[in-house]
Amino acid sequence: GVGDLRLTVRNTTVTISGTDQANSLAVYGNSQNHVTIQGSGGKTINGSNAPIELLSLTSGLPGDVIISMRGGRDQIVLFDVSLNASLHVDVGTGNDTLMLADSSIAGDLSLTSARGDVQIRLHDGAIARSLSVFNSGDGESLTSLQDVTVGRNVSVISSGGADTVVFQGAMIANTTHVATGSGP
Questions:
Q1: Which of 20, 63, 98, 184 is deepest in the core (most CB within 10 A)?
Q2: Alpha carbon distance 89, 75 (integer Å)
Q3: What is the pLDDT of residues 59-97, one digit of tens each?
Q4: pTM surpassing 0.85?
């Protein structure tokens, strides 16, 4: 269907990709400590409404998780997830929202956006290595870290539009670099 998602696994890398339509995705931990991926708002993954359980991401999947949306108004929510890998998210070119809550990432977390109004909200989590956020569009962007621990560096770069960056209760082990195009 329109706005549906595709999931592929190649070697040890999990890739979730969207279409140019609005896509909604939930990634969450379940009671067996596995990561579950499910389309939300009526969206399917590989043509199915059923959740997809990735076995044992928590016990050592050495590959990365890549989420790559395209156009449309995308919503990506990750909660209660523990990844023993890096997470790379490209929210695409629409007015998009990414929320990561009550989660831990054993590697790096990188977030990119090419255009549109983007909200990135990270709450109550830990990133073992570095966090990088790059918004290259001219829309309004919000990057919010609340009660998040980062083991290495944080870099937030927004090149245009009205940009807001908020750190509240964030603990960053090394350097922090913030550069905004305009706005607060």
A1: 98
A2: 12
A3: 445 568 899 987 778 899 999 988 888 999 998 777 889
A4: yes
